[in-house]
Amino acid sequence: MVLKKKKEVQVDAFFLDHHQAEKLQRFSKAEEQNLASLLLHCAQLRNGIQQIQCIKQMMPLLKQMDQSSAGDPMVKACLDVLGEMYFSLGAKNPLKKVLASSLNGLPGHLMLSAVQSFVCCLREELKTTEVYLYRKVLDNLAACLEDFSVGRACIKSLFEEVLQFLQKVLLDIQEENRKNHGNRIVQTQLMHDLLIAIKVSMMLVQKLQENIQGSLWKHSESFVWQSMCSLLKSSTDFLMDATLLQTVQTTSGLAVILFTRAMYEPSEELPSLMSALLLGTVEHSGVPAWFKRSCGALCTAELPHSARLFLCHGALAMLDWKNGSMGTNGEKLLLDIASVLLSLSSELKESSVATSLSRILAIWTNSALAALVSGSPDLKIKLNGNSDIIGNLLEYIYTHWDHPLDAIRHQTKLVFKNLLQIHQTTIAGSNGKSDPFFARLIKHLLSLDWHVKGKYASLGCLVECVGTENILQLDRAIPVQILDVMSDQSLAPYASDLLETMFTNHKAHFTSSFQESTWIDQWHNIWVSPLLVILCEGNHDQTTYIIDYYLPKLLKCNPDSLSYMIKILQASADANLGSCSTRGALGALMACLRTARAHGHLELSTIMSSGLVSTECIKQGLVHQHSQVCIDALGLLCETHRTTEIVSLEEMQLIQFFLMYNLNNQSPSVRQQIVSLLRKLFCRIQESSQVLYKLQQNKTKQELVENSTKMPPLKILQQYKDFMSSVCARLFEVLFPGSSHPTRFSALSILESIAEIFSVPKGPAQVFQLDQEIDSARVQTLIQCFASTFEEVKNLAFRLLMKLRDVALNLQDSENLDLLFQAAIDLSTSTKPYDCVTASYLLNFLVYHEGLQHICLGKWLEKNPQMDENTSVSTVEKNTLAVIKLLLVNVEEEILQAKKSLLQAAASFPMYGRVHCITGALQQLPFNNLTLVSEWKEMVTRLILMSYSLSAVVSPVVQSSSPEGLIPMDSDPESASRLQMILHEIQPQDTNDYFTQTKILKEHCKEESEKLADQRPTENICMEKRGKDRQVCDVTAQMVLVCCWRSMKEVSLLLGTLCKLLPSQTTSEPSDGLITIEQVKNIGDYFKHHLLQSRHRGAFELAYAGFVQLTEMLSRCNNESLHKMPEHWLSCVLEEIKSCDPSSTLCATRRSAGIPFYIQALLASEPKKSKTDLLKMTMKELISLAAPLNESLSVIPQVHALNILRALYRDTRLGENIMPYVADGIKASILGFMSPVWAVRNSSTLLFSALITRIFGVKRGKDENSKKNRMTGREFFSRFPSLYPFLLKQLEIVTSTLNSEAEELKIHPSLFLLLLILGRLYPSPMDGSHSALSTAPFVPFIIRCGRSPVYRCREMSGRALVPFVLANEVPHTVLALLRALPDSATHGTRQNSVHGTLLQVFHLLQSYLESNQFVSLDFQQGLGDIITCMGTKLWLAKRLNPCLVTRAAYLDVLVMLSTHLEKFQKQGGETPFYFISVAEYQLITSRIKKQSLKPRCRDTDDVYIYQCGGHKGIEDVYVG
After folding, report:
1. 1139-1155 residue pLDDT tens
2. Terminal CA-CA length for the chain
3. ω into residue 266 within 30 of 0, thus cis?
4. What's the rounded Cα separation, in Å, for the pair 11 and 14?
5. How far is the C-alpha of 451 from the C-alpha of 490, rounded, in Å?
6. Given a cut of 70, is residue 1414 above it in pLDDT?
7. What is the CB neighbour count within 10 angstroms for residue 654?
8. CA-CA distances (angstroms) from residue 537 to 524, 587, 630, 804?
């Protein structure tokens, strides 16, 4: 609703050198304004916008000149200057475009002179030989070729020189790139220059076709021909070079096709050549010699996948597919490109290449549509919906429509949409709505589960082809089903888009079919009535997403539906007020009104005055027990379509009523919404007040004002001011000491919004200013908020004080200032961690006070007269430097004391608080604008040395093998003896009391403590006081550990801040940089040491936070030695992991401690758009270590590799770049699970868990069997094709150990993992003959897993079997399983096998019946055979079967069949259970109900035991 400020256009002005100015001065005349004087005046201006206006004034003068002026020296001089000006301006400077468009209007007789001037300038440009200056020349060439007639004529006359220059540029950049291998910053710059050079070459060929066509240039000796061959060869080299950026390779593919098309003859054979290149079937005898010399690398059978992909792109983009100009060879090429692209889709898994492939497929569909318009009948047959190519494309769509990358999902939707249009084109003339292809697609899509995201977009495309009515005829409940799905936020946008497409199409169908509006009731029943029911009774998430996504689109389609909604809801609002869990009719009414007002469909004053909605009704909504109803009622008041709509008095009164009851809401999301909505209201007040001020000033419109607002503007403005004052008073009133965190958060957030919106203006008057409401009591209230234990409250209070700092600081007298500063210094060394945060905020606030130095800091620090005299130094900089110096002096002394007694330091003066305050102070400073550079350099050096000293004191604790209980031995004799006494006290009990109870250091330490205090410097008064009080010190192991790891945390954050905020010196010469390269390297070594050796998770996690700041700075650094440091560190740590050196200090326990964090930080800092070479190298090394070929090697590298891989797979910053390595990770984890070493198995389990989450997504519900975190078998094996043979092989090995006849329990370690993966797959109706990987080989092995003696494995085998059996094979497979069951109870019956088989039958039938696919199959016959076979195994449900578990499993199958087949029976089918007599059925049911089945588990294995009660004795039935 708030208007965005327009960006100001920055235009750099141009300047003339002395020679140019002198030339113009010669021709300029003072008495009259001629062209030279105007141009000279233009150059003297220093504002680019003004220069643009001046150039526009010059053009009429040029147009007025007659033909005799063409030889005028003054005109020639001016054109020369304009040419030099044009080529000196930057490519993005608007001045350049204005000059070009102005010169396009030159009269013809001046055009030749202009071209001559520009030719001279361009000729000078083409003499450039410095590689890094080529970019400017290339930009100028590109600008000349783009809609600039003078520039194009200029290039046309210098065509050969330009061609030679481009040829040289490509070769020079290629060579320079080779020389700078490894320097990513330089290489990236060269890549972009190379990209521009290739694009300019293509523009040259495309826009100056006449210069390269004809018979003369095609002689092999001609210069143009040789230059074209050179350009073609260079483009081929770039296409084949995998080290270049992908955009360069893509553009090179376009260039190869473009240049070849321009040079190849006869042109009719070009498609055949392209087909042969793509298919790898080039016959060298039929290829011209010049092509073999230039593109010989493309004429091989083993062309790289990426090269084939980009050649396909080039062919589609650069060849003419319209009008059938390429004939049958072109049609064959089109089909060949499709087959090549589809084959590449299974090979190219890297995210960037996969995205390119999906985009190229979309381009192919557009080309196919263009080719079909004038294509042959044969092409129409081959592109019909029933053809193999379209079938394979549909397979691609089904595999990628749920891809994790948005870009691929979007392109997949475009491909599907175009495929439908392709099919429509092939059947032009027939009825598309009854077409079998569309009918089959609709049926398959409707049979899919609604959690499949691709279903929505695909159905939306089909709706546009066949209409909503035809789809609703198949199932009228579709709108309700889609609305039910909208409780899931990840699906709500897709569902709302589909609903919008459907109801918009449906409305268009009704309006075209019916003359009158008789259809509206039917439309409302289908699309509006289900919505109202859900809004009243639906759950919170569902109603929220429907209101956000669906309701605005519905009202936009048909605004008149609002009156229908209000009428229905108003009728039941009084009776159905809702509850804390449901909105009720009142809540639904508020939601509809809010949405309608926000989108401009109603005026609140109108509905209130008409009585549709009363004030009492809105008040009920504002205090409703359902928090979202309160938010909707508030939104109704705050959100409007126009930002300048006047806020009425009634609205202001209702807002005040709302604030009385809702500031203490416990939900963070509700509080955020309250703040956001009130911010919109304040913006309305601000915007409308400006309008009122303007209207008040314009007396001629006074009457109009009175008529429009019904009230004088001044009165409304006074109401605004009174309202804002009362709101602020209410907000400050609730900030009393002890108020709750939600209340404080809400009040401070709203006050901050007010301070931002009603800031002190430079121009127009403000209706309200917050600083006028501030007094000393309210400032004190805000300062007291710093004492809150919640940091977000401290932060909000600090930000508000900063916005009001001029007023707030002026209200602080010297006594109060001194007390605040003393409190901050005391809190900075408190043993309570949150106190140091309070101290940091206090100090950051006080450094803005001009008198801080004289009032407070003078007590501790010597005055620096030079600093006081230097008035150019800002107050903040002087005060911050002094505060940091004071804190640094204190912490340095405390470190000296901590070296003597770390116990004493932990109990009395933990050092981390001081360091935290230093870091906070540094983060406020503007480091790019410092005055006291030398002082800051010295300070930074001292801070770094202090960090190292503090780290050295505390690191032995966090780096010990068991930091949680370590008490360090003190060097002080008295402290050491007391420590020995404590350790002696706790030793006999052998308990952990020491770690939970405080031990008192006795009174006899008083004298020693006083001696220590006396040795402290006297300048630190607060430290003296604390020293004197240090008589009894409470200390536990936790206190020591907290002191140490928090100190490590603050040191890491301080060093990270120094690296991130301070500009680095890039040379050895003195500069304004505050930190040297050597210091940065030392900081990096420090982080490396502590990340690789710390054992305490808190310590290395927070060291990681600082290290990330360092690596991000290094990745952006221009210094080559710094830029290459991450790569060097990474290589070193990988070598150390591989070496298995016994002397290595790397931690092999605690999940490798900080090693994964260290490698994560190094890899995550790699530029996102680079080739990710570090990631590729690291993953290759780690995967080889995680799944070693030689089992005799040490297991420690394997454990490290598994732990590091787990961290990398979990790192969201690596995104899709990590996906190509997922399959290898799965292999490593499954193989590692079979290791005899526990550490390997443990790490493999953790890795496997991370990979399951990475593949199937984060679990979003409690249902283990939900399809939200699953994918189809086709999609899984398409994304990870290498897992197909691996899982199949492993499953074969696993099932070979399952011998159902053996008595002993043999369980393969990886059985559970395999079934867990396979169980996450689910069948899809889209699985068909076009699938490349058959699922049939898995079926017998999974069936065999049903014999496992482990109950859980049998259950999972039942689920895992489902996706591997095609829908039409289900009846046959179920029948085979049932026939394998024993016909009667025999002595050798293995109940495990029976149970596993029944579970597999149950899950197959359940999936089969729930998917609604049985309608299209031979339902009666298949199910009749199954029921008959079930009847022959009825003994499994009787007393003859002694195992209650298998009896229950059999009955589960019967009940499931009965439930799902009731519908079929009602439709006239036979009774499904004719083989069970009523008596037998009742007998079995009643017996099972009487018997209570209680599962319990035996410790020796995973076999479930069911205990049957109801008898005097207890009978244990073992499964198996």
Report:
1. 876 666 676 667 777 88
2. 68
3. yes
4. 9
5. 9
6. no
7. 20
8. 19, 10, 16, 47
E runs forming strands in 1135-1261: none
Question: For 348-370, what is each residue's pLDDT tens digit?
Answer: 888 889 999 999 999 999 999 99
Furthest-apart CA atoms within the chain: distance in Å? 127
Per-residue b or e along 1189-1216, where b marks 16 or more CB atoms closer than 10 Å to that residue's CB = eeeeeebbbbbbbbbbbbbbbbbeebeb
Give the model confidence (pLDDT) of 824-880 as tens digits. 988 988 888 888 899 999 999 988 888 887 776 665 565 555 555 556 678 888 888
In the sheet where 1504-1508 sits, what is the strand order?
1493-1497, 1504-1508, 1515-1518
Q: What is the spatial distance between Cα 631 and Cα 622, in angstroms, rounded to a whole number?
A: 7
Residue type, 1118: N
User: Rounded CA gap, 1520 and 1503, in Å?
Assistant: 8
Distance CA 751, CA 738 (A): 19
Would you state the structure tokens that stand for residue 611, as one six-digit string? 């009585």
644/692 Cα distance (integer angstroms)? 9
What does the alpha-carbon distance between residue 414 and residue 360 come to, in Å, rounded to a whole number? 11
CB atoms within 10 A of CB 1312: 18
β-bridge pairing 1271-1272 and 1321-1322: parallel
Query: What number of helices (H) and strands (E) belong to the chain?
Result: 75, 7
Q: Is 1167 helix (H, G, I), strand (E, B) or coil?
A: coil
In sequence order, the β-bridge partners of residue 1064 are 1075
Q: What angle do CA 34, 37, 43 make, to 5 degrees?
A: 140
Is residue 268 within 8 Å of 339, Cβ to Cβ?
A: no
Sign of torsion over alpha carbons 227, 229, 235, 240: negative
Distance of CA 29 to the CA centre of its chain: 63
The confidence band for 310, taking pLDDT boundaries of 50, 70 and 90, is very high
Residue predicted with more confidence, 1282 or 374? 1282
Q: How many CB atoms lie within 10 A of CB 589?
A: 31
What is the tens place of the pLDDT at every residue in 1217-1255? 888 899 999 999 999 988 888 889 899 999 999 999 888
Please name which of 943, 909, 934 lies closest in space to residue 1056, comparing C-alpha atoms: 943
Looking at residue 794, its amino acid is K
Q: Tokens for 1274, please give them.
A: 């086709």
Higher pLDDT, 857 or 496: 496
Instruction: Quote the CA–CA distance of 889 and 878 in Å, as a whole number.
Output: 17
Collect all residues with Cβ–Cβ distance below 8 Å to 683 and sequence separation of at least 6.
1, 2, 643, 757
Q: Both tokens of residue 1070? A: 């003195």
The residues that bridge with 1321 in the sheet, in sequence order, are 1271
Closest C-alpha to 797, from 840, 768, 851: 840
491-516 mean pLDDT: 90
Enter the pTM of the model: 0.81
Cα separation, 959 vs 1090, in Å, equals 8
pLDDT tens across 91-120, in order? 888 888 888 888 887 887 788 888 888 899
Identify residue 1206 by its one-letter amino acid code.
Answer: R
> For residue 862, what pLDDT is reported?
57
- Amino acid identity of residue 517, one-letter, is S
pLDDT at 525: 92
d(CA 887, CA 942): 12
Q: Which residue has the tokens 């196919």?
A: 368
Residue in 224, 171, 223 with CA at minimum distance from that of residue 193: 171
Distance of CA 409 to CAs 441, 494, 1271, 1280, Å? 19, 12, 15, 18
Separation of alpha carbons 1131 and 1127, rounded Å: 6
C-alpha 380/C-alpha 373 separation (Å) is 10
Q: Tokens in use for 1313?
A: 């993992």
Return the SS3 of 1505. Answer: strand
Band of residue 1510 on the pLDDT scale cut at 50, 70, 90: very low
Provide CB contacts within 8 A for 595, sequence distance 6+.
Answer: 547, 551, 552, 555
Task: Provide the 8-state DSSP code for 761.
Answer: P
